Amino acid sequence: MAVEQITLEPGFIVVTNDRGRRHQIAIADVLRAGDIPVLTIGKLTLLTDLAQVVTVIVKTLIEQEILDEKLVEGYDLQYVAEQLVDTLGADW
Q1: Which stretches of 1-92 are DSSP H helices?
Q2: Cβ contacts of 26 within 8 Å, gap of 6 or more
Q3: pLDDT band at residue 70, thresholds of 50, 70 and 90?
Q4: Which of 13, 24, 31, 35 has the greatest number of CB atoms lying within 10 Å of its CB?
Q5: 7-43 per-residue burial string, b: 16 or more CB within 10 A, e: under 16
Q6: What is the mean pLDDT of residues 60-66?
Q7: 68 with 30: CB under 8 angstroms?
Q8: Residues 57, 4: Cα–Cα separation, whole Å
Q9: For residue 71, what pLDDT is reported?
Q10: Distance between CA 21 and CA 3 in Å, rounded?
Q11: What is the pLDDT of residue 81?
């Protein structure tokens, strides 16, 4: 039998073979506590500070006309700004 599809469901990795039979593997069975990083308030503060620094750099590069709205294909400054503000709490 060959694997037809691998999907994720809450708490499980689901493997479906070419005959349609599904086998659920509990994610808890394959993860160890050591595989999951510890997220602390200090690390969140560090991420916010990093986002603020990146924001200042990007704004400065725009003001100096080194950067324009187009960064690389698929990403633009609006996307970057939204991620910095919405996800990391930076001030734009």
Answers
A1: 27-30, 41-63, 77-82
A2: 11, 12
A3: low
A4: 13
A5: eeeeebeeeeeeeeeeeeeeeeeeeeeeeeeeeeeee
A6: 78
A7: no
A8: 47
A9: 60
A10: 10
A11: 74
User: CA-CA distance, 45 to 20, in Å (whole number)?
Assistant: 47
Per-residue pLDDT of 1-58, as tens digits, reads 688 888 888 888 899 988 999 999 888 877 776 666 777 777 778 777 887 888 788 7
64 vs 6: CA distance, rounded Å: 48
Assign 45 to helix, strand or coil. Answer: helix
The end-to-end CA distance of the chain, in Å, is: 54
* Average pLDDT rounded to a whole number, residues 61-84: 70
Partnered with residue 70 across adjacent β-strands are 76
Structure tokens given for 17:
């073979």
In the structure encoding, which two tokens stand for residue 85, read together? Answer: 């503000």
Residue 16 tokens read as 């479906």
